[in-house]
Specification:
By secondary structure, the protein is of the alpha/beta class. The chain is 50% helix and 11% strand. The strands form two sheets. The chain has a seven-stranded parallel β-sheet with strand order 3-5-6-7-8-9-10. Strands 1-2-4 form a three-stranded parallel β-sheet. The protein is globular. It binds adenine and zinc ion. The site of adenine has 11 residues, from helix 4.
């Protein structure tokens, strides 16, 4: 059997459910925005920035990621960031996306919530008009901040509910259990928003249980630590609770030492609804196609397995039934 080629994987219609817009900020755009906004960067060349992207854990990465986001100041910056990601999606045949943004990273620097969401939403609208890429936007709370700060952010989001589909939970996981945010998730669900949460990336399988039971999420972001708990794996299979797995992220952040150690294919084989995503592609060495290629190289992935991974993403997405039907047809 021959390995799946990059061309085949690139032209496979794909869906992305776990992508931080701030994590798609390529060093070239970072420099352009720093120049435009007169923000001083601690690097003098794009090569120096790329060399700094060696991480030994999640916190190592987050420190650099929050620093990078400081070049984003005005609405057009958020538009340009989102647009650059959508251009990548078009090149890689990603037909539907559900990106995250971290408003607190920006509002804590004095940027109005409206500036952030208007820039992102305008680009997503143009992405649908010009490229036919459909989208649903997810607003994340930073879990290293307080419940009170999450409530304040939800209040700021209320005038923009039409632009939002779901809330999420990200940032440093260890010592920040999902249940810290139970009440704000309940309030968001009362406002009609769906819920997702990062859980079981570096944190324990227990956090996956509390994200499901306390936050009532529709999907788990990452969730790779689920294989530590056989009862949880059985529950994920029975409920078909989706996991948005990010293979290159997990090896870059040393969750797995090598791609061949990754458990996504084992979970797929067992019947867990796993999906492939890029997380923070500018920092982790690749977008959707590169993530599929990395898996195809480490495992003898078949066309059927690649299609099943995309099919899981379609079913796990927040797209309406008509759009899901269109996307299923693209995979035939
Ligand atoms: N924010 C951006 N990327 C993240 C990740 N992989 N885990 C938690 N928070 C994040
Ligand atoms: Zn993530």
């Amino acid at each position: 059997m021959t390995a799946l080629t990059r061309d085949w994987l690139n032209s496979l219609p794909k869906v992305e459910l776990h992508l931080h817009l701030e994590g798609s900020l390529e060093p070239e755009l970072m420099f352009e925005l720093a120049g435009r906004n007169k923000v001083k960067l601690p690097f003098s060349t794009v090569e120096q920035v790329r060399q700094a992207y060696e991480f030994s854990n999640l916190q190592d990465f987050l420190d650099i990621y929050y620093q990078g986001a400081e070049v984003l100041l005005v609405e057009q910056d958020f538009y340009d960031l989102t647009w650059a990601y959508l251009e990548k999606c078009r090149q890689q045949n990603v037909v539907h996306v559900e990106p995250f943004f971290d408003p607190q990273t920006h509002t804590d620097r004095g940027i109005p919530f409206a500036t952030v969401i208007k820039g992102i939403s305008r680009a997503l609208t143009d992405g649908q008009t010009r490229f036919g890429i459909t989208s649903r936007l997810i607003m994340c709370f930073l879990r290293h901040l307080s419940e009170e700060e999450a409530f304040a952010t939800l209040t700021q989001a209320e005038p923009f509910l039409a632009q939002l589909t779901a809330i999420g939970l990200d940032s440093s996981e260890k010592g920040q259990p999902p249940e810290k945010f139970s009440r704000v998730f309940t309030r968001a669900r009362e406002l009609g928003l769906r819920a997702v949460a990062h859980a079981g990336e570096e944190g324990p399988a227990k956090y996956i249980w509390t994200a499901i039971n306390d936050l009532k999420v529709s999907r788990i972001d990452h969730g790779v630590r689920a294989t530590d708990d056989p009862k949880l794996i059985a529950h994920l299979i029975a409920s078909q609770m989706p996991l948005t797995v990010c293979p290159l992220s997990n090896t870059k952040l040393c969750v797995f030492e090598r791609m061949s150690d990754h458990n996504i294919m084992e979970m797929l084989h067992k019947g867990v609804c796993v999906t492939v995503n890029s997380d923070d592609p500018a920092y982790f060495g690749g977008y959707m196609t590169e993530n599929f290629v990395a898996l195809a190289q480490a495992f003898e992935m078949t066309e059927e397995q690649a299609r099943k991974l995309v099919k899981n993403s379609i079913e796990a997405s927040f797209a309406g039934e008509a759009r899901k039907k269109e996307m299923r047809a693209l995979l035939q």
